């Protein structure tokens, strides 16, 4: 029997393939130092676990509205709006089983086949996958490496916008490179979106993963709220990656499309999980604060370990839980031209597992440098330190 040819355009989250290779190596008796997957091995705060258990005991285990329960939608509307100096209501919120579904549903709501979609590359690979699977034309934009991190290549973005452009996907506090836009950079990007009448998906999965200061959103720039949908997720903020709870926040008309898609695809998001989060969203912050404190310690250990390696220099990012070092000099030292070969050799030589730039969208023309990505969300501080010592020995050999 023949499968649909459209499936040939459907990609995947290739970090899971790295995870499988690491697991296979670990099954042979090797201790793995897992920097590959952006999962969190920190316990979900106890108040959430207890609230979910109570919701199950109270019988919240059946269907609920496809749009989500009104109480949670109202709590998210208030929380998201307050932190972005905007006004949202229940009608602007559609509850989702995680943040990832927002990507595909957003494109289904605003993109026609043949429309061009600008998306970050390197970036979360599901952008590219969903654009092409749904018949859009994926137009990548990239970043410029600086001494302080990564900046958007705004000139390249401007040049890439054609009359066929319909959508801009923007991931501030970015996966994989932790890039954070300055206010000026964000305003310039917003100006382009408004000028060319683009829909914007603002992927804010890491909005709350900040080590100091307050985060900013492009949706807060005047003229952007009415053309933007926020991707919101509980996965990172509350260490709830496996619970699958998120939301799309945006204009009423597009949120209504999300609600219809919810009914068609999954009926609803788990009722008891929604019920558990109603009081948590704007309630006790001790759980999220403890998560940030632990992630900060891991970040500092990982940054110190990488900077101790000859040929690597990296700044400590203020957001996300990723590091994206340039390993071009390491590659030259070892006589390698394929960064995935570096990854494979590192695993078998040191038991350290990480992803590479190639796991975050297809490489674009004229890329000269090589990068690897470390996620420090799923590995304890002592293992970070031990893994970095092993990696230093291999990288400097």
Fold and architecture overview:
- By secondary structure, the chain is of the alpha/beta class.
- It is built from 13 helices and 14 strands.
- The radius of gyration is 21 Å and the shape is globular.
- It starts with 14 loop residues before the first helix and ends with a helix.
- The model has no long low-confidence stretch (mean pLDDT 96).
Itemize the secondary structure elements and their pairings.
Elements: H1 15-26, E1 33-34, H2 46-57, H3 70-84, E2 93-96, H4 101-110, E3 116-120, H5 125-133, E4 137-141, E5 143-146, E6 149-152, H6 154-160, E7 165-170, H7 183-195, E8 199-203, E9 228-233, E10 246-249, H8 252-265, H9 271-277, H10 286-307, E11 322-323, H11 328-334, H12 339-350, E12 352-353, E13 355-356, E14 372-375, H13 381-395
Parallel strand pairs: 1-12, 3-4, 3-7, 7-8, 8-9
Antiparallel strand pairs: 2-10, 5-6, 9-10, 11-14, 13-14
Helix pairs in contact: 2-9, 4-8, 10-13
Q: Nutshell version of this structure?
A:
The relative contact order is 0.18. The protein has 397 residues and is α/β, with parallel strands linked by helices.
Q: H/E order of the elements?
A: HEHHEHEHEEEHEHEEEHHHEHHEEEH
Helix content: 25-40%
What CATH architecture of the largest domain do you see? 3-Layer(aba) Sandwich
Under CATH at level 1, the class of the largest domain stands as Alpha Beta
The overall average pLDDT, rounded, is 96
Strand content: 5-15%
Number of strands: 14
CATH superfamily (homologous) name of the largest domain: Type I PLP-dependent aspartate aminotransferase-like (Major domain)
N-C termini distance: 51 Å
Profile the largest sheet. Answer: 7 strands, mixed
* CATH fold group of the largest domain: Aspartate Aminotransferase, domain 2
- The value of Rg in angstroms is 21 Å
Uncertain residue ranges? none
Which structural class is indicated by helix and strand composition?
Answer: alpha/beta
Number of structurally distinct domains: 2
Strand line-up in the sheet with most strands: 2-10-9-8-7-3-4
Broad shape? globular
Q: Give the count of helical stretches.
A: 13
């Amino acid at each position: 029997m023949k499968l649909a040819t459209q499936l040939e355009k459907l990609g995947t989250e290739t970090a899971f393939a790295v995870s499988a290779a690491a697991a296979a190596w670990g099954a042979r008796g090797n201790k793995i130092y897992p920097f590959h997957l952006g999962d969190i091995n920190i316990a979900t705060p106890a108040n959430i676990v207890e609230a979910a258990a109570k919701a199950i005991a109270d019988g919240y285990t059946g269907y609920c509205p496809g749009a989500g329960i009104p109480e949670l939608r109202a709590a998210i509307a208030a929380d998201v709006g307050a932190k972005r100096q905007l006004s949202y209501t229940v009608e602007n919120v559609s509850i989702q089983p995680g943040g990832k579904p927002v990507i595909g549903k957003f494109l289904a709501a605003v993109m026609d086949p043949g429309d061009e979609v600008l998306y970050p590359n390197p970036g979360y690979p599901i952008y590219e996958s969903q654009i092409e699977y749904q018949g859009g034309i994926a137009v990548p934009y990239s970043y410029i490496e600086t001494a302080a991190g990564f900046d958007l290549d705004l000139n390249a973005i401007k040049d890439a916008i054609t009359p066929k452009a319909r959508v801009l996907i923007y991931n501030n506090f970015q996966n994989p490179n932790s890039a954070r836009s300055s206010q000026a950079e964000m305003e310039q990007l917003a100006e382009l979106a408004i000028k060319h009448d683009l829909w914007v998906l603002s992927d804010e999965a890491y909005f709350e993963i900040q080590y100091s200061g307050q985060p900013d959103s492009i949706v807060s720039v005047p003229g952007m709220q009415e053309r933007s949908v926020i991707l919101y997720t509980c996965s990172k903020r509350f260490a709830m990656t496996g619970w699958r709870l998120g939301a799309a926040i945006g204009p009423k008309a597009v949120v209504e499309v999300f609600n219809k898609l919810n009914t068609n695809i999954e009926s609803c998001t788990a009722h008891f999980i929604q019920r558990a989060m109603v009081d948590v969203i704007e309630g006790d912050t001790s759980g999220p604060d403890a998560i940030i404190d632990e992630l900060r310690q891991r970040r500092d250990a990982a940054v110190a370990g990488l900077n101790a390696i000859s040929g690597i220099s990296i700044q400590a990012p203020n957001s996300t839980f990723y590091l994206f070092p340039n390993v071009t000099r390491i590659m030259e030292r070892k006589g390698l031209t394929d960064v995935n070969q570096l990854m494979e050799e590192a695993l078998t030589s040191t038991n350290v597992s990480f992803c590479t730039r190639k796991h975050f969208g297809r490489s674009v023309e004229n890329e000269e440098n090589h990068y690897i990505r470390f996620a420090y969300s799923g590995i304890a501080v002592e293992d970070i330190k031990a893994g970095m010592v092993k990696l230093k020995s291999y990288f400097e050999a």
